[in-house]
Specification:
The complex is a heterodimer. By secondary structure, chain A is α/β, with parallel strands linked by helices. Chain A has helices spanning 17-25, 70-80, 100-112, 124-129, 136-143, 158-170, 177-183, 189-206, 216-231, 242-251, 256-298, 302-319, 322-338, 340-354, 362-367, 372-378, 385-394, 403-414, 421-447, 473-507, 522-535, 538-550, 557-565, 572-580, 590-600, 613-625, 630-640, 644-670; strands at 6-10, 30-33, 40-45, 55-58, 88-96, 117-122, 132-134, 147-149, 207-209, 462-465. Chain B has a single domain (4-72), classed as Roll (SH3 type barrels). The chains are: A alpha/beta, B mainly beta.
Chain lengths: 674, 73
């Protein structure tokens, strides 16, 4: 952040705040952490072309200054204590013109608390479509602050806002922050009612029907509305959007609404599989290709091996599931922007509340299918602490994208070439197993009330279902890119570090083994050397220590080492297997050559096949349950404020993983599926 | 007195009061459930809970439990 003055952008949810932020700052924003927490703000300097030296800070939407959920609390805190020891010079509040009475509440509270504010009216076009217009000058007079209309789609009105910002910043009067702190308080019921009744008067005065020629029908309808209002002494209010009402009569239909919901979710998951999987294979092939090229370029030596197997494969294992993350965030963004996510949360609130969760857990859980880290951050919208902690607890059970490369490999092993459809069936079953097990575990923990999560219970679900609208692709795209990069930055270094350590452990100490080369071709010498090097490596030493744990599962230390290395990130399991079985992607795809190597592999010293149907299914079960991502544990620690939850997660989920794998493998073998 | 949770689908009523003892009283007021305001029950979930009300030009979903603290005329 620069030394420029700080402008805070705030507003109720769905009031067009993000659109305004993008209009003012373009896409050059960065996320910053609020001191002492992982809560993120967006911050950026205002675009150069606007010629204003100021930083703009965007934080989650709030309804009022009385925060209920952790994300609202951060937004309110950021008003009082903005990051970087700065003082807030100006607060810009976005207000949806069709929601004037409701949204004015926040602006009023800010004004009463002593902030200098500018009101930005959004969605005036929607208001006009309903036959009304709003008098900004009158509103400005009534609220004693500047009021600017801005069209989010065209950017019309931004010049007027810039003039007001310049004017406010040049004014030497700073917001008296001390005064604000002392006067920021909970508003009582009576005070809230008073503000509301003032706001209703303002809405009545400032919003008027457009005097354009209206047809008789519309006029009659409007008159009828006024009559109802006068007859029953009801305060004037706008009707809800007709299109929204029509769409909702289908999507929120009492009986088939839930069916449509399930259908949409199924579509999302299958699209992840159908769209992301080919892309992931492309990335995989690209890095496999790059690794073998590097190997040819640098030769079969320490450097060549470090570059191809250590660095390039490590980077590949970070980037391989970027396609899935992008696709899932794009779909989530689309659903959120159209307004359907809030409806999904409503539809599923009741079943979730039965197992101790909340309708608001729905979005974090869905995000968990991309990556647990943003999913845990998304739980901040859950006001009830108990429900929030429980949601965080079960998020690692959501089948995240890191598991997809692992499943892809294991499923490919199980699927005969003549039955490609079987792969889809197996993957669907894995998703269903992961959802069911999370529901069961959540329900069990919920039964043991207050043992795991000791917090008082005042669960609530109050959520606005926004008007359906056409999604703003630009915002969704920026948001997706931002989330993807922040994921790569967060998880990338850890994964690469683990890949490198693993490479080191499998390559040393015997990095140049002596083998009997008599009568062997060059390739055979290399293969023999590789095998010799591995069996003398540190990894083999470590692996043999855990052999007793792996034997009951019908597996050997090589799988054990791969499972341990998967603690960096699950997909490292694949690259680690490749490394241990010394698979190089020459001539064919990495996966094909890995499958070959796996089919040949035998449990050392027994001659029994290592990878059979039962051990492969056992491995799938292991990956469904095991809490294997240290980055996730670190985020769980930050989000819950203690090590309690992440440690319990690691212990409980890893035990489950081991026990269920043991049961699966041995039951399958007992009934004759080797 | 009738509660908002007892409304039939499509029924339009006027809010009488919000129970001040409800822990969610203030949040309900903040989102627009104020005495004198007309509300209409527009959607019910599959399990009859949560309920969605149209008010002040928008739709707000609340749980049955929360609708219990809203008395209507």
């Amino acid at each position: 952040m620069t030394n420029s003055p700080l402008i805070l952008l705030t507003g109720p949810p769905n009031s067009g705040k993000t659109t305004l932020f993008n209009l003012l700052c373009g896409k050059n924003y960065k996320t910053v952490n609020y001191p002492g927490s992982t809560v993120e703000y967006l911050t950026s300097s205002i675009l150069e072309k606007y010629d204003i030296q100021a930083d703009l800070l965007d934080s989650p939407g709030i309804i009022s200054l009385n925060p209920e959920s952790p994300d609202e609390k951060v937004s309110v805190d950021s008003l009082l204590n903005p990051p970087g020891d700065k003082q807030t010079k100006l607060v810009i509040v976005t207000i949806d013109s069709t929601q004037l009475t409701r949204h004015l509440l926040l602006a009023k509270q800010l004004k009463l608390s002593g902030f200098r504010i500018i009101i930005v009216l959004t969605m005036v076009d929607l208001l006009k479509k309903r036959g009304y217009d709003i008098n900004a000058d009158l509103l400005s007079e009534k609220c004693a602050c500047p009021v600017i209309k801005i069209d989010g789609r065209t950017g019309n009105g931004i010049e007027n806002l810039l003039i007001e910002i310049r004017h406010s910043l040049n004014d030497s009067i700073l917001t008296p922050i001390e005064k604000v702190r002392s006067s920021l308080k909970e508003f009582s019921k009576d005070e809230l009612l008073e503000i509301y009744s003032e706001n209703e008067k303002i809405e009545k005065d400032c919003i008027h029907e457009i005097n354009s020629p209206v047809n008789k029908d519309q006029l009659n309808k409007a008159n009828a509305e006024i009559n109802i209002i006068q007859d029953r002494n009801v305060k004037a209010s706008l009707k809800i959007d007709e299109t929204t009402r029509k769409i909702d009569s289908i999507l929120l239909h009492k009986s088939y609404g839930i069916l449509i919901f399930i259908l949409i979710m199924t579509l999302i998951f299958s699209s992840i599989f159908w769209l992301a999987n080919p892309l992931m294979q492309l990335v995989d092939e690209f890095f496999g290709d790059l690794a073998s090229k590097a190997n040819t370029l640098f030769g079969q030596n320490l450097l060549g091996d470090l570059i191809s197997n250590g660095i390039i494969s490590g980077t590949g294992s970070v980037l391989v599931f970027v396609p899935q993350i992008i696709i899932l965030f794009l779909i989530l963004g689309l659903l959120e922007d159209t307004g359907y996510l809030a409806r999904g949360a409503m539809l599923i609130d009741k079943p979730l509340s039965k197992i101790g969760l909340n309708g608001r857990s729905f979005v974090p859980m869905l995000t968990g299918f991309a990556c647990a880290i943003p999913a845990m951050l998304a739980t901040r919208t859950i006001p009830n602490r108990r429900e929030r902690l429980l949601t965080i607890f079960i998020i690692p059970l959501m089948s995240c994208s890191a598991r997809l490369p692992v499943y892809a490999l294991l499923i490919a092993y199980l699927t005969p070439p003549d039955k490609p459809w079987l792969g889809g069936v197996i993957l669907t079953s894995i998703y269903i197993l992961s959802i069911l097990s999370s529901a069961i575990i959540s329900a069990i923990i919920n039964k043991t009330k207050n043992k795991l999560v000791n917090v008082s219970d005042n669960s609530s679900f109050i959520l606005e279902l926004p008007t359906y609208r056409f999604p703003k692709f630009r915002n969704i795209l920026y948001n997706t890119i931002d989330r993807t990069f922040s994921y790569i930055k967060r998880a990338g270094p850890v994964i690469i570090l683990f890949s490198l350590s693993l490479w080191f452990l499998t390559y040393f100490p015997d990095n140049n083994p002596k083998v009997d080369t008599a009568g062997l071709s060059e390739n055979e010498i290399i293969e023999l050397q590789n095998a010799e090097r591995l069996s003398n490596s540190y990894a083999a030493g470590l692996g043999k220590l855990i052999q007793p744990i792996m034997t009951p599962l019908g597996m050997d230390w090589r799988v054990g080492v791969s499972l341990i290395s998967a603690f960096a990130a699950r997909e490292v399991f694949v690259s680690s297997l490749a490394l241990i079985f010394k698979v190089t992607g020459e001539d064919e795809t990495l996966q094909a050559s890995m499958l070959d190597a796996m089919k040949k592999a035998e449990i050392e010293g027994t001659g029994k096949k290592l990878f059979t149907k039962s051990t492969i299914i056992g491995l799938i079960v292991f990956f469904v349950f095991a809490m294997q991502c240290l980055s996730t544990a670190a985020v769980a620690r930050k989000e819950t404020g203690s090590w309690r939850i992440p440690i319990l997660q690691i212990i409980i989920f890893s035990t489950f993983a081991y026990v269920f794998t043991f049961i699966t493998v041995n039951v399958l073998q007992a009934i004759g599926i080797s | 007195m009738k509660k908002a949770s007892q409304l039939n689908f499509g029924e339009k009523v006027v809010i009488n009061d919000i129970d001040v003892l409800s822990p969610h009283c203030n949040r309900l007021l903040e989102v627009g459930f104020t005495p004198g305001q007309q509300i209409e029950l527009v959607h019910k979930s599959f399990f009859d809970d949560p309920l969605a009300f149209a008010l002040r030009g928008t739709i707000i979903a609340i749980r049955k439990h929360e609708a219990d603290s809203i008395t209507v005329i």
